[in-house]
Structures are given as structure tokens and as C-alpha cells.
Amino acid sequence: MPTMTAAEKKAEAKTQYNAFLAACPSQQLLAQVSGKWVTLVLSALGSGPDCDGEPRPMRYSELARVLAGVSPKMLSQTLKSLERDGLIARTAIATVPVTVTYELTNLGLSLHQTVRQLKLWSETHRDDVSAHQTQFDGVR
User: How big is the CA angle at 133 (ends 131 and 139), to the nearest 5 degrees?
Assistant: First the structure.
């Protein structure tokens, strides 16, 4: 059996990720990116409330308007988490007051379409799911 370098071992381990296994690190990432506010921030970022625009930088206040119901604290925490994960970039411009924008990185763009589709699916099928829940609850 040939000896493997650390880089080769790491590359091989990546090909063996399986989120169905409890010890798999991709399970934690899946939990992080599937949170409600993460999904909505990523789908809205630059696209607006209807998710019909192209991704573009947005200011905090724009995001807060689009994401009705998010508290300032939760929006700030979500943006920091997404920045830490490398999914968005924060740019501060020295103006009075300081202008801060957020935009998707290449990594964030690779996830953008998926979360947009999830948001649109949930809007399209909400009534169907509600009807099934009502039927299920009535049988019990």
C-alpha cells in the first residue's frame, strides 16, 4: 500500500463525505446553510423580495426591508456567520455615516440559485402542505 501525503489524505477524505453519517463534518455545514434566515438572506441578497433580480451588493437597511420579521440582532448575527463561512463579503466605505454593503462571494453564488429555488418552492407549495397537515391532523 503506497504512502499518502497529508494533502492526498485530505483530498480522499473529502470524496468520502456523507452527510447521512453522524460524524460527517458536512452535516454541520448543512445545518448552518439550511437555517431560515440564512436561506432568506442568501436568496434575497441582490435579488429583492421576489427573487427575480440578479445578485448585487445590498446595504443592511435594504436587506432588513426585504426580510420582514427579522430582528436587527438576528440579521447582524446571520450576516456575520455568512461572512465567516465565506459566503458573503462585507465592504465598508468611509463616508459619513459609513456605508456598508454585503454581496455574495463566488462560494455564496454557488449556493444562491439553490436557496432561491427552495424559497420559491415553499411559496408555491405552502397551500398543498397545509392541506396535507390538516388532513393528517384530522385523521389522528
Answer: 105
Edge-to-edge, what's the strand order for the sheet holding 88-93? 58-59, 99-104, 88-93
* Residue bearing the bigger pLDDT, 17 or 47: 17
Backbone angles phi, psi at 91, to 5 degrees: -125, 125
Give 71-121 pLDDT, tens digit per residue: 999 999 999 999 999 999 999 999 998 999 999 999 999 998 888 888 889
pTM for this predicted structure: 0.79
Burial class (CB in 10 A: 0-12, 13-18, 19+), 79: buried
61: three-class secondary structure by DSSP: helix
Q: How many angstroms separate the CA atoms of 57 and 102, rounded?
A: 5
CB neighbour list of residue 37: distance below 8 Å, 6 or more residues apart: 67, 70, 74, 75, 78
Among 68, 103, 77, smallest CA distance to 88 is for 103
- Identify the residue whose cell numbers are 456523507: 18
Per-residue DSSP letter, 98: P
State residue 73 phi and psi, 5-degree precision.
-65, -45
